[in-house]
Model the fold of this input.
Amino acid sequence: MPIKNTKNSLFLPNFCDLKMVFAVVIIGELLAFILTLAPLSIEQQRWNDLALISLFIQWNGLLGSSSLCILRPFFVNYSNQFVATASYLVLLLVIIFVSELSFFIIDYYQLGLIIPSTTHWEFLLHNLLIGSIISALALRYFYIQHQWRMKVQMQSKTKLQLLQARIRPHFLFNSMNTIASLTRTKPQDAERITEDLAELFRMLLKEQKELIPWSEELTLSKRYLDIEKQRLRERLSVEWSIENIPDEMMVPALLLQPLLENAIFHGIEPEINGGIINIKGEFVHKQLILSIENNNSKNPAHRKGNKMALDNIRERLEVFYQGRASINCEEINGVFLTVLKLPYLHDSESSL
Amino acid sequence: MKIIIVDDEPLARERLALLIAEINDQYIIDFAGNGLQAIEQFNKSSADIILMDIRMPGMDGLEAARHLSDLDNPPAIIFTTAFDEYALDAFKSEAVDYLLKPMRKELLEKALKKCSKLNKLQLEQLALRSEETYIRTHIAAQIRGNILLIATADIACFLADHKYTTVQYYKNNIIKETIIEDTLKSLEQEFAEDFLRIHRNALIKKQKIESLEKKQDGGVFVHLKNMPGGIEVSRRHVAELRRCLKN
Done:
């Protein structure tokens, strides 16, 4: 199925590039050397062989890369899997075409002496076999190189961006303002919020690799909601219903907080009368199932989501659970529902 | 000197009020929890300065400021925000007064002393540059120094004659009419999603269309809900209107 491929993530290098054409010529020539040197028996006419093999390989290489160059704008719209299969087939077709053409020329001009003792089919099969191995190796190489490049790109995302994906600067400055206000009127509340904020940020500034016990994650989420409650007062109501989740179950630190922050940003803040956030958690079949439900504002101006937070959570789930955990969001009749499923991990597994 | 503090967070309002009282206890302070309340408050008893938060439920600060600036004698507006990358850039380039929360008393004092009135152009620029594509929730009309706010949900159509634009809106299901300052062209751009141009001088709300009537001379008229008389549809807009009705 065609999947939209963003321009940068096409794994094939650009064969229209002059440098790439040069590389294809050089690699083709090296291959010709290998093929010439490979036979064990010593023959007199190695230079002749090299010339013929080179000619054949260069035709294949150049025709193959120009086909891929022409197909490139078309490939951009498809998934890498599709592109890999398609380019492999294209390369094989080119080999068949060139082989047939050379055999025809040899036959027509009766140059049979050049390639002694081969039938048409032997010749074609021979070329196709070598070609299919070399093409597969080349495509595999391009794919790995592409993967490596993507990884480097991912890693070069700055720490700050990661931090912002997990917490909105809005939250930090609003909390500071809350503290500034409370310092005069209710110093004790101000003190408590400062402590809550310190705890949250201590956890945030740790490495993202951290796993913590569920009980601790729950406490952190409640601390976060306490801070927001001071700011939003009666507009924010939270209903918890957590059942038989083992306290010692290990979960990625601060996985919940960005979800709660999203719920407040989209469900509570845009509404004059606020709203309710429903958090339900249960432990079924060795799996934690957590759902967060909030009204989604009808006001279109506030609908623009923070996809960053969700993307970040997905990435972290992949790192910790390799596909065994999931997060799903859906909106039904103005109610926004997020469901998080995590498999049970205990303490000894947490040192992944 | 009278000041209205507009913020949806009670603690933020409290702190601002404390700071202002410390700067000068002669200032009279009023409060509002969002843009709509701010305008209500202003209509009740006008103010010299409005300290306006940006992100608020109901009606946000930028929109409220736009409505207020339509007045002949608008108040000075100082925006307050905790964090708003987009808005901040815009404020700087449009030379609009703004304060960052939590704010310092010295800066607030300075701002109160030298704050300037915003002009319409500045505010329109702000709206254009703000984070979301900007569509007002209300249309404002000025009546004897007060602002009359009409929710866009209540509007049936905008009509223009050579000099004025009028808005026809429902109040308790009865059509009312008032003159506004916007041009039909700018309204058409802003509300393109919900309104449809049917004539050089008419922009109607798609949702309120009741029926089409074809006159014997070939002219087409559209009838809106609860609205006496039809509005003429110009020939080149008939096809588009029919297409819209089908959906």
In short: Chain A has two domains: 7-155, 161-350. Chain A touches chain B at residues 168-170, 172-174, 176-182, 184-185, 230-233, 269-272, 299-302, 304 (CB under 8 Å). The beta strands of chain A are 211-213, 236-242, 250-252, 275-284, 287-295, 326-332, 335-343.
